[in-house]
Design brief:
Layout (H helix, E strand, L loop, with lengths): L1 E2 L2 H4 L1 H10 L8 E2 L10 H10 L2 E4 L3 H8 L15 H9 L1 H5 L3 E9 L4 E8 L2 E4 L6 H12 L7 E6 L3 H8 L6 E5 L8 E3 L10 H9 L8 H7 L9
Helix pairs in contact: 3-10, 4-9
């Protein structure tokens, strides 16, 4: 069922309405998704049925889920960790997610012109950048933590540090992606030529992919199989 204007309405609102009408959610297709490079109906249905959970260092996981009309099955949405802290977390995610989510302080986000809460998860700092109150951040963290599908995980991050890439590549995930601005033979390394973007920060270069501004790789192959299928010459 092709839903015209779905992006403007919001897929979450559409799927809620579908549930009320007892329509199968996995039969819905936002019209913009069919225009994404690499799209086939078969791959998209597989992706929907896979119930993918994304552990992401920053907003990438939430952004690409939104771009592809997928629900959030991870608490790693609208927030960020340092690259080193994310590697720590990804080494033992079940252990860390059992830790108390402890509020530490409030910081100011200049680009967004608002305060945001910072939490500790064991010895890892979690900055809830796009939340305005600690109460909302705390509630969303626990709500989305309960949705994790441990049988289909993708770990994704970006770094400009080859040593951090090596640490990340050694993690025991079936699907893992690390966007880097240099070429590497490591399986998890997804090279992006930063000259293709006007963004100053490399994290934003990678997030342009998640926002569907530019698709460096086939997003369906990436999320389904952890497979590098380049879409442009880099």
């Amino acid at each position: 069922m092709l839903v015209v204007g779905a992006k403007e309405i919001g897929m979450s609102r559409i799927t809620q309405a579908a549930r009320q009408l007892r329509l199968p959610e996995d039969k819905l297709l936002g019209d913009w998704i069919a225009c994404i490079p690499g799209f086939t109906l078969d791959k998209y249905r597989k992706l929907q049925r896979s119930r993918l959970s994304i552990f992401s260092m920053n907003c990438f996981g939430g952004l690409i889920s939104n771009s592809l009309g997928l629900p959030f099955r991870s608490p790693f949405v609208n927030m960020f960790l340092s690259a080193q802290d994310f590697v720590k977390f990804a080494r033992a995610p079940r252990v860390y997610l059992e830790e108390d989510f402890e509020f530490q302080e409030t910081k100011f986000y200049h680009n967004g012109n608002h305060d945001y809460p910072v939490f500790k998860l064991g010895n890892v700092v979690v900055s809830m950048l796009h939340y305005y109150t600690k109460e909302d951040a705390f509630a969303k963290w626990h709500e989305r933590k309960a949705r994790i599908n441990w049988y289909n995980l993708l770990a994704v991050m970006c770094t400009e540090d080859e040593k951090i890439l090596e640490q990340f590549d050694a993690l025991p995930y079936g699907k893992k992606i690390c966007f880097v601005p240099f070429k590497s033979d490591l399986d998890s390394a997804y090279y992006i030529n930063r000259k293709l973007s006007k963004q100053a920060a490399f994290t934003e270069v990678a997030n342009d992919f998640a926002k569907a501004f530019v698709f460096y790789y086939d997003p369906f192959d990436m999320l389904l199989y952890g497979k590098k299928t380049p879409l442009i010459d880099m």
